[in-house]
Amino acid sequence: MAQNIKMKLIYPRWEKLPGQTTFNLPPHGPVVFAAALPERVDVSFTDENVESIDFEEACDLVGISMMLSTQVKRGWAIAAEFRKRGKKVIFGGISTMLHAEETLEYGDAVFLGEAEGRMEELIGDWEKGRLKKVYNYMGKLPPIELVGPARRDLYKRELYNHKGVQMVDLFHASRGCRFNCYPCAVSYLGGRVFRPRPFDKVVEEMAGIDNNRLFIVDNSLAQNKEWEMQLFKEIIPLKKKWVSHTIEDDPKILDLAAQAGAWYVYQAVFDTSDFIRERIRRYHDYGIGVEGTILLGMDNQSEDDMRRLIDFLLEIDLDLAEFTILTPYPHTKAYEDLMRKGRILDYDWDHYNAGQVVYQPAQVTPEKLQELYEYAWSSFYSNESQELKMTKLFTRVMRREMEDGTWRPRDRKLMNQSFGKEVKRNIGNI
Question: Domain segments of the chain: what residues?
């Protein structure tokens, strides 16, 4: 009887920016990929953001799953270490797809596209000693019904816990996005057709997650009103509390979202219009918090425009704000446009972190845009720190959980740990 194959699956570390939260969420891509592997593949998982890689761990095959451009160079370095030891290395994930040509040089194979229904071929080729250099399924989308529950059993949960508070689990109810936004690569990665998962599979997976707090990572929930309303109706009985990207601006949908457990949303704030002001107010009317996502450096933004936008944020009662600089990721309209015009200044992927200027802005110098980005963070959080604002959101969700009987106390065994490391307790600080 043939022995199972041992695969070591790795998620490379990436450097956080000064303004970003120190929290580490369990990555979604690797455990979705793991769910698509044949049963004869035994997987161990290492997230290098919370633990060290054991390069001597016994394994037959190494998989490196990369999501961010800032993981790419580290992923290449990890691959080199394993290949020195005679291991075959397969790359996959979003940033592998965005940086495929370069990544080819560093691995034995690259997998491009969605994994469901495709991994038997790859694993079979490896078993026969004829691994292909490229498995290219870009644009060849598998039936959405093949998407099963992610392999969350691979997580070491204590490594995603902060002083006894478990971080949210990531989950997706759909794939694809019918929009094609200027700085976004989603249309290239997952196509412009909205592909919702069957409701029974969504409910089954969500119910099976041992965590009351989730992050629904769909690109946008506001893609189909009927589907969105039905989704919220289906998950109301689960009493989960969740974060998501944009929800449709419709009172009926917002009411259902609140009933279904909407905790807070990421909402793009792109101008200082009354439409945005009212959009934020309506979320709040239904008890849904808002983290504004603000993109700086678009061609239509002057220095004055950006300063007005930053000041505007303090007027509209955002719960949190996250600022990013326009970053021309490969296979986006922004990349094609700026490259054609000769405006990309830096191709070091470590700098493609949405917090560094890597191109020539249209109306300000790169130095001025960097200054405005830093001003945005310091200005918005000048009166209340990011930690305090986040604490308020946590307090709000805990009250709702206490009301509906789903609240879980902190894990007392982990009160003195933060993401696997010992810390001194700061009473009252989440």
Answer: 5-144, 152-404
pLDDT confidence of residue 1:
43
Class of domain 152-404: alpha beta
CA atoms within 13 A of residue 39's CA, in its CB half-sphere: 0
pLDDT at 369 over 70: yes
Exposed/middle/buried for residue 143 (C-beta within 10 Å: 0-12, 13-18, 19+): exposed
Residue 237 per-residue DSSP state: G
Beta-bridge partner residues of 322: 293
295, 326 contact by CB (below 8 A): yes
pLDDT of residue 2: 59
Q: Which CATH class is domain 5-144?
A: alpha beta
Q: What is the dihedral of CA 268, 273, 274, 278, to 10 degrees?
A: 0
Contacts of the segment 130-135: beta carbons below 8 A, 24+ positions apart: 131/88, 131/90, 133/104, 133/108, 133/109, 134/100, 134/104, 134/109, 134/110, 135/109, 135/110, 135/111
